[in-house]
Structure formats: structure tokens, C-alpha cells
């Protein structure tokens, strides 16, 4: 299909609307997952990490690389959803239902639903191991674990397995995407059939970091670039992440499974590398991860999958100082071990809210009329709220203006009535604020 040309003016208008929508999304419904790996000797205890994620960040899901009970239990009651992973070596044994039942009883049942376990990942990049025994038992293990979860009344937990993009034999341009021969019909088609039947996601780990060349760096990190044109579809791809997702989609569609949901198990960019890796920097990591978060929260999907959403887990939550390999491997983290962000990608909740410690005040809105301000004062001060501070001689009498007195009265009412947003409505003449309006000796309660 060739896309019809769109007038430039219309495009400009559309992208302005898109931008507005994006910033709205970022402010109000940001949702992102992280891989919580812990190959380190300096990380805070899991319970502290769980509290930090819940209270100080927009991260609402974590993915573990194992089924460590200490980590699973740490997230109980936080609402943060969790992916628990079965070790590759356990896969052959779990192909039989009784063993799968035992595994679920030991590793999931004690913690669920207190910990919001949403997905069970069966192994990690199993096809990339080329281990015939593991690969042969992967789908049977996924099936028996699904059955065991259902039998234990935990059928809401969905079963998947993450794949590296090594499953693709071709990926560029995206419309040519196809799975490796030998894996496509024998292994991936029945697995996609399983995902369709159980309404579970096909999970992939796209890493533009492992695919860029000097020429395609900007394309890989969402910076302005000349794009990659797919002449078969007429689509001009301007970032490699979206192109990789469409390559996966093309491979699935070729086998007849274009409808199956896709999730992103891992993706990321390191912030520190070795001397021969000039593309590894704090700036490039912030560009990749910041734009990735915006991309997957935008709701626009990809050219081949318009409007589809991909549950996404960034690699990684922490820099992990005991990971082997090149320097970059130890520097994929969004956060340092002391919980400070390595760079700002908008995942930490606003400083204002943190400084105010969640305290809020109610003030008149800018457009409130004098009549409304007077009515609010009359209403509050006749309802039993203490208004002596704004009477002559009171700490908040000066400045002697209707607006200043109304502000004090409306806030006093809001605080005493229980600090619900509707306690600050006042016929749409009140607004809740995070900054303390107290001045001099005039203290506004909070
Ligand atoms: C559990 O996580 C899911 C997202 O996977 C979310 O929709 C749901 O609200 C969470 N449940 C609780 C109790 O927080
Ligand atoms: C693709 O988009 C980029 C960035 O907007 C632009 O520079 C390039 O000319 C486009 N290429 C084609 C073939 O349309």
C-alpha cells in the first residue's frame, strides 16, 4: 500500500495536535516498565526500591530476571505490576504439568495477589541459546505453566517468553521482516498460535543500540535524520525502534499472526562506555530512553500497527556494578545505586510535590469575581471555620483585600473539610496548589 500524500499545512497542524497530546500524556498517564536486574553489591534493599518506585517515580511495572522471593515480596501492596521469570535451566522439567503445578505453588502462589504479578516470562532469549533441548521444551513449558496457573485460580497471570531480534533473518526495510528459517514455521508459528489463543503478548527485545552504525546513530537515538525509506510501503521511518517493531510485525504477519499483541521485554541505551564507543554517552542515553518513553506512551503505535500499544520494559533500572563484559554493560541504568537519576527523562515525580511532601492548599482561581470571593468568605466564615486571622488585628488581615481574605478562608475550609478536590471547588472559583501561600506571620494551614 502506498500512502496518499498529505498536504504540508495539514501535517504541521496534525503534529502540533500530536505534540499537545503527547505532553498531556506525559503529565497525566505516563506508564513505563523497567528491568530490575541486581548483579551488584551496592544496591538498596528491594523493599526500599519498591517504595522509591511507587512514591517517587512514574515507573509502574518491573521485570525480574528470576523468581527471587525477596524481590517478589518487596512489591506486595505497592500496586506496581511485576514480570517474574523462570530460569532457562528449569524449562525442560516444567514441560510436565505436575512439575509446573509445583513450581507455581512454590514461586507464585505465596505472593499473589498481594504482589501484582501480571506476567510470567518462561526463560530469557531461549532461541538465542541454540540449545535444542531448551528450545524443544519451551512451548510445552509455557502451556503447562498456563494450565497450572489457571488450575490454581491465577489465570489472570499471562505467560510469555522474551526473544532477541536474532529471531529475524531480515529486518530492513521493515516490510521485508521475516523470521529465521527453521524457527519460523516449526517454533514461532505454534508459539504465536499459543499467544493468540491465550491472549498473551509475543515479547521481543529490540535494541537499536546493537544495530546502529556511525551513519545511523541519529536514526537509532531519535535525533533528526534523513529517515529510512521503505519503497514497498512508501513509509519513511525516522527512528530505528519503530522500524524494528514493524520488522517483527512483518515477520508475524507473514506467518498469519499480525493480530497477536507485542510487548517489549527489554530495550535501552548505556550512558558510559569504553573509549572506542563515542556513541555511548549520557546525552545519547537520555535521548534514546526519553524519546522511547514518549513514543510508547503516545498511543500512536507504528506505521504498520497504527494505534497499538506495547507494554515496554526499559533495560535497566540500575547501573549494575558486577555485570561482566564491556563498561557499557554496567551502565545501562536509569538510576544509580543511591537512587539518584543518571539523567532526567521525566520519570521522577515533580520536585514541587516532593518539597511540599504531598501538602496542598486551596486558593481562588485567577478569574474569580469579587462577588464570588465575597460569597466564599461569607459561606466559609458562617460554617464554623475560624476566620479570626482575617479580621482586623489578625495575622492575615493585611493586605486588606477581598482576594487575600478569600484565599485564607477558602484554604481554611478546604483543610478542615478533608482536602478533597471537591472541597476546593467553590462553584469553580477555587484551585488546588502545591506551593505554600503563607507569608510573614500569616501562616496558611496545610
Ligand atoms: C496490577 O497491574 C495492572 C497492570 O498490569 C493494573 O492494571 C492493575 O490496576 C494493578 N492492580 C492493582 C491492584 O494495583
Ligand atoms: C524522510 O524523512 C526525513 C525526516 O523528516 C527527511 O529528511 C527525508 O527527506 C525523508 N525521506 C523521504 C524519502 O521521504
Automatic annotation (TrEMBL):
Q: Which reaction does it catalyse?
A: Hydrolysis of (1->3)-beta-D-glucosidic linkages in (1->3)-beta-D-glucans
Q: Quick one: a GO biological-process term for this protein?
A: carbohydrate metabolic process
Gene Ontology MF annotations: glucan endo-1,3-beta-D-glucosidase activity
Annotated signal peptide: 1-29
Q: Which residues form a coiled coil?
A: none
Listed InterPro entries: GH, Glyco_hydro_17, Glyco_hydro_17_plant, X8
Task: Say yes or no: keyword Cell wall biogenesis/degradation present.
Answer: no
Pfam families given for it? Answer: Glyco_hydro_17, X8
Keyword list (alphabetical) reads:
Disulfide bond, Glycosidase, Hydrolase, Plant defense, Signal
Broad class of enzyme this protein falls into: hydrolase
Answer yes or no on keyword Signal.
yes
Q: Which residues form the X8 domain?
A: 360-444
The UniProt family comment states: Belongs to the glycosyl hydrolase 17 family.
Q: What is this protein called?
A: glucan endo-1,3-beta-D-glucosidase
Amino acid at each position: 500500500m502506498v500512502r496518499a500524500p498529505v498536504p504540508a499545512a495539514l501535517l504541521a497542524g496534525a503534529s502540533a495536535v500530536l505534540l499537545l497530546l503527547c505532553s498531556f500524556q506525559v503529565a497525566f498517564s505516563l506508564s513505563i516498565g523497567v528491568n530490575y536486574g541486581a548483579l551488584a553489591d551496592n544496591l538498596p534493599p528491594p523493599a526500599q526500591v519498591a517504595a522509591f518506585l511507587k512514591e517517587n517515580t512514574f515507573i509502574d511495572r518491573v521485570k525480574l530476571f528470576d523468581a527471587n522471593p525477596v524481590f517478589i515480596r518487596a512489591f506486595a501492596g505497592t500496586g506496581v505490576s511485576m514480570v517474574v521469570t523462570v530460569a532457562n535451566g528449569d524449562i525442560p522439567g516444567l514441560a510436565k504439568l505436575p512439575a509446573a503445578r509445583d513450581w507455581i505453588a512454590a514461586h507464585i502462589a505465596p505472593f499473589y495477589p498481594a504482589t501484582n504479578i501480571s506476567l510470567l516470562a518462561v526463560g530469557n532469549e531461549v532461541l538465542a541459546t541454540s540449545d535444542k533441548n531448551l528450545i524443544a521444551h519451551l512451548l510445552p513449558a509455557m502451556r503447562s505453566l498456563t494450565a497450572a496457573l489457571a488450575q490454581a485460580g491465577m489465570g489472570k497471570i499471562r505467560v510469555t517468553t522474551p526473544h532477541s531480534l536474532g529471531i529475524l533473518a531480515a529486518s530492513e526495510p521493515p516490510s521485508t521482516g521475516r523470521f529465521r528459517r527453521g524457527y519460523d514455521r516449526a517454533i514461532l508459528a505454534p508459539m504465536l498460535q499459543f499467544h493468540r489463543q491465550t491472549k498473551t503478548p509475543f515479547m521481543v527485545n529490540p535494541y537499536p543500540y546493537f544495530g546502529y552504525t556511525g551513519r545511523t546513530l541519529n536514526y537509532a537515538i531519535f535525533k533528526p535524520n534523513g529517515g529510512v525509506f521503505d519503497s514497498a510501503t512508501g513509509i519513511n521511518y525516522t527512528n530505528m525502534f519503530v522500524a524494528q517493531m514493524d520488522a517483527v510485525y512483518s515477520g508475524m504477519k507473514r506467518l498469519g499472526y499480525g493480530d497477536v499483541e507485542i510487548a517489549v521485554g527489554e530495550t535501552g541505551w548505556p550512558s558510559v562506555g569504553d573509549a572506542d564507543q563515542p556513541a555511548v554517552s549520557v546525552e545519547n542515553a537520555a535521548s534514546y530512553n526519553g524519546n522511547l518513553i514518549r513514543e510508547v506512551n503516545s498511543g500512536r503505535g507504528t506505521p504498520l500497527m497504527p494505534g497499538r500499544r506495547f507494554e515496554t520494559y526499559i533495560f535497566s533500572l540500575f547501573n549494575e556494578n558486577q555485570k561482566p563484559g564491556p563498561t557499557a554493560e554496567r551502565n545501562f541504568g536509569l538510576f544509580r545505586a543511591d537512587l539518584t537519576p543518571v539523567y532526567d527523562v521525566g520519570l521522577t515525580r515533580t520536585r514541587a510535590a516532593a518539597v511540599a511532601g504531598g501538602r496542598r492548599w486551596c486558593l481562588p482561581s485567577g478569574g474569580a469575581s469579587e462577588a464570588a470571593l465575597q460569597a466564599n468568605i461569607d459561606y466559609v466564615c458562617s460554617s464554623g471555620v475560624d476566620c479570626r486571622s482575617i479580621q482586623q488585628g489578625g495575622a492575615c488581615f493585611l493586605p486588606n483585600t477581598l482576594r487575600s481574605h478569600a484565599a485564607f478562608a477558602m484554604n481554611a475550609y478546604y483543610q478542615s473539610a478533608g482536602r478533597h478536590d471537591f472541597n476546593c471547588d467553590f462553584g469553580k472559583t477555587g484551585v488546588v496548589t502545591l506551593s505554600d501561600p503563607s507569608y510573614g506571620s500569616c501562616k496558611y494551614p496545610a
